[in-house]
Amino acid sequence: MSADLLPVAIPTGQRPAPIAELFYSFQGEGVSLGRRALFVRFLGCNLTCGYAEVPTSHDTPAQGSTLCDTEYTWNSTKHDLSAGVWHLTPQEIWDELLQLDPTTADPSLAQVDLIVVTGGEPLLHKDAVLHLAHQARLTDRCVEIETNATIKPGPDLVAAGVAFNAGLKLASSAVPRKKRIKPDAIMEIEASGRARWKFVVSTLDDLVEIAELQAQFGLTEIWLSPEGTTPERVVEQMRMAAAPALEHGWNLTTREHVLIWGGQRAR
Ligand SMILES: Nc1nc2[nH]cc(C(=O)O)c2c(=O)[nH]1
Ligand code: SF4
Ligand SMILES: [Mg+2]
């Protein structure tokens, strides 16, 4: 075999990862609400919010009141996961993100200084996330990882200075507790000192469970996030959650992108 036919070894950190969406918007939830951000949405999730198990057909009924709002990243019974997906190396993801930052075309504009990494579950693609975290740091940008907090991020990612918008799932997701509550991952994320625990609330029972999890794991910073993919539903859930949030010492975010654009994708 001549040298130019030898298979090229791809360095572990540069394996392509499946990307569902790259977009430029406002961070719609949590501590950075309203800040302009560049978003990366990875394909794939290790949970099945709304269902107790992986659905077996497109009409498998949901069993939980908190349904995943991005089923197109993992539910192959309802969506063609290969449609519109890109397989990009971590460096290619970074290059595409920079193209979305308007300062690239017009340096007189302020740089977008926040990268939001989401999914699916982005920590299933740790090498890619770590590369983005390093590139972000080199360019003075912050990174927020929207994770379900079931996978340990590992020391490299913690040392890279990222923040975790850690969305622990509750019984209302229908996912069995032993799949959605992973004590080792929760403790590692809390110990990073950059965890914001974000709970999607759809019922008053959710609030009881949040208080129990807070006490069990010593969660320091809690955010309630209203369940809903319409502005009306988001406002209704915020009204339900507001008084209990103030009473328990919890923060309450809205979902700004839903208020502006409803349930549209890549917003
Ligand atoms: N604008 C906007 N903000 C977001 N914050 C977290 C998001 C997510 O889907 O994880 C999200 C999203 O999908 N859009
Ligand atoms: S963890 Fe997030 S992406 Fe995964 S199923 Fe639940 S809501 Fe959907
Ligand atoms: Mg979302």
What key attributes describe this structure?
267 residues; alpha/beta; TIM Barrel; nine-stranded mixed beta sheet; 9 helices; 31% helix; binds the ligand Nc1nc2[nH]cc(C(=O)O)c2c(=O)[nH]1; binds iron/sulfur cluster; binds magnesium ion; lyase; magnesium ion binding; metal-binding; Aldolase_TIM
Question: What report would you give on this structure?
Answer:
The protein is an alpha/beta fold and 267 residues long. The chain has a domain at 11-53 and 62-200: TIM Barrel. It has helices spanning 90-100, 102-105, 126-138, 155-159, 177-180, 183-191, 204-217, 231-248, 256-261, and strands spanning 17-26, 36-42, 86-88, 114-118, 142-147, 163-166, 195-201, 222-226, 251-252. Strands 3-1-2-4-5-6-7-8-9 form a nine-stranded mixed β-sheet. Helix 1 packs across helix 3 (126-138). The protein is globular, with a radius of gyration of 19 Å. The N and C termini lie far apart (49 Å). Iron/sulfur cluster is lined by residues 45, 47-49, 68, 70, 73, 119-121, 148, 169.
